[in-house]
Design goal:
Strand content: 5-15%
Shape: globular
Largest sheet: 2 strands, antiparallel
Structural class: mainly alpha
Number of helices: 7
Oligomer: single chain
Strand order of the largest sheet: 1-4
Helix content: 40-55%
Length: 152
Amino acid sequence: MIDSINLCELILEKTSPINQLKLQKLVYYIQAFHLVFYDAPLVGDEFEAWVHGPVSRKIWDHYKEQSYIYMDIPCPDRPVDASELSSEQLALIDEVLRVYSPLASYQLEMLTHSELPWIEARGSCRSDERCENSIRLDTMKKFYRDLVEKSV
């Protein structure tokens, strides 16, 4: 596992500038595909089914003073230490970023809104209603594994 803030800094180093909405979705997708390929989470954070999609409260709290939801987060001012990640994990991160980082924040939000893990966690909450329900790791793993299998 890697600390989610360290992962965020790695993402920012590779894709900056991006806003918190997009950063949250990129970390979420990295977590999802890490579950698929390694059968284990990459970060220890829970993702909650917020109005604008999956959110790690830890990441939200860390960046909320630096960035509002649509305001760019500054790139880290020092090189990121990724030594705790294997070359395979780094390749997975790069691949997820290659696929998802070209999408705009709003596109990523709409994508997560169309996917079972977020929908299931929202339950009976209205689309504009605050929700702190956790997105289940097993649902993420199954949904994204099925997605990978369909694309092969």
